[in-house]
C-alpha cells in the first residue's frame, strides 16, 4: 500500500535482499488507535519525507509499519550477542522491524526501523511491545546526543498505539521510528560466524564496507581495513561519551554498531556527580558497564568482532589472529588520543599545549571532581567563567579550595580560551530528574514537559533565560536514580 508520506522518497529493501539469511519478513502489529506524540520534522525533511503527510492518518500508519510503502520489505533482523559477558547465539529483533532503507537528501543511505512493533520470531518470551515512557526516553536522549555532535541513531517519531501494555501496571503502548546509517552490529557478525557459512560472513562484511567504509575496498586486505575502521570509529565514539558523562548502560555486543553510531537508549543516563563507578542501570548489578569501564568494554566487544572476522583476515588461523591482535592493539592509543584532544578542548587549551603538561593537569582536576562528587556538566560550563577571571562559580563546587586555587593558577597560565570552552561544554543535558518528569507527564497525556525539555537539550550550548532549571542538578530529594531496559 502506498502512502502520501512516501511522495518524496523511494524505499528499498537492500538488507533484506542481500542478507536474506539474516532477515525474516514480518509485519508490524496493527495499532487500534495510533496517535502522534512527537515528530522530528527537521529529520523528516533530511530523509525527503513530508512532515505534513506524516501527520495524517495514513502517515501515522507508515510510521508504525501498518502501511508498508512501495519498495519496502519489513524484516526482523537476526544477530547474536554477548549480553553482560554471556553469549547468546540467536537474539535478533524481538520487538522491532527494519522497515527499509531510503536515500536522504544528501545521498546517504539510511535505515528506517520500528521499535515496539510487536512480537517477531526472535521475541522469545517477550510480548514484542513497547510503552510510551521508554520510547520517549530514546527520542529525547538520542536527539540530545545528536545536538551534542555525537554519532547516534536518530528518532523520527513516537506514535502511541492505543493499546495498553502490561508491565508492573498497565501502561500506554507506543512505537518508536528510528533512523540509522545501518543497524549492523558486532552481533550481526557473530551471528554470521556462528552459522559456519563463510559466504554469509563475507557478504555481511561486504555489505558493511559498501555502506560505511567504501575506502576499505582499496586496501590490500579489505576485511582487516574494515576491522581497523570500526575500531577507530568506536574509539572516537566512546571518548565522546566519556567527555559528556554519558553512560550507555547496556554495552552488549548486539548494541555496538559497525558504523560507530550510538544505539539502544535503554538504561542510559548522563552522569551528574563525577564518579567513574557510576551505574544507573537496574540490571547492571556488578557494574560491568559503569561509566569508567566503558572504554575497556568497547575494547572487549571489538575483540569479539575480531574473532568473528578471523576467517576473512587470513587463510592461516595463526596469521589471522596476529593481524587481529595487532589491529586491536591500536584501540587504546586511539581512544586516549581522542579523549585527550577533546578534554583539551573542554579546558580551552590549544592542541599545541604539550600533552605532557595537559595529562597531569587533567588527572588532578578529575581527582578534585571525584573527591567532591562535583556535578560534571555544570562544573565544566562554570570553568569557562574562571578563564574570564570569575573563579567562584567553579570554585564553589569543589571541596579542596586550596588545591583548586593552585590548579586554576597553573591552568590559566596556559591561556585557556573561554569562548572555545563554551562551544564544547554544554549547558543542558537530559538530566535524569527532568527526563523522568517529562516521561511521567507524557505517560499521563501531558506532553508539555517533554516539549520544554527538547527545546533545552536540542540546543545544548546556547544558554537562554528562562531555562535555568534545565541546567541545574537534581534536587536532593530526587534520591538514587535507576533506569530500566524498557522491555
Output the number of helix runs. Answer: 18
Mean pLDDT score: 95
Largest sheet: 6 strands, antiparallel
Query: How large is the radius of gyration?
Result: 23 Å
What's the overall geometry? globular
In N-to-C order, the SSE pattern is EHEEHHHEEEEEHEEHHHEEHHHHHHHHHH
Q: How many beta-strand runs?
A: 12
State which percent range the strand residues make up.
5-15%
For the biggest β-sheet, the strand order reads 1-7-8-10-9-3
Quickly give the structural class: alpha+beta
Name the poorly predicted regions: 1-7
Q: Name the helicity range.
A: 40-55%
Distance between the first and last residues' Cα: 30 Å
Summarize the structure.
The chain is an alpha+beta fold and 487 residues long.
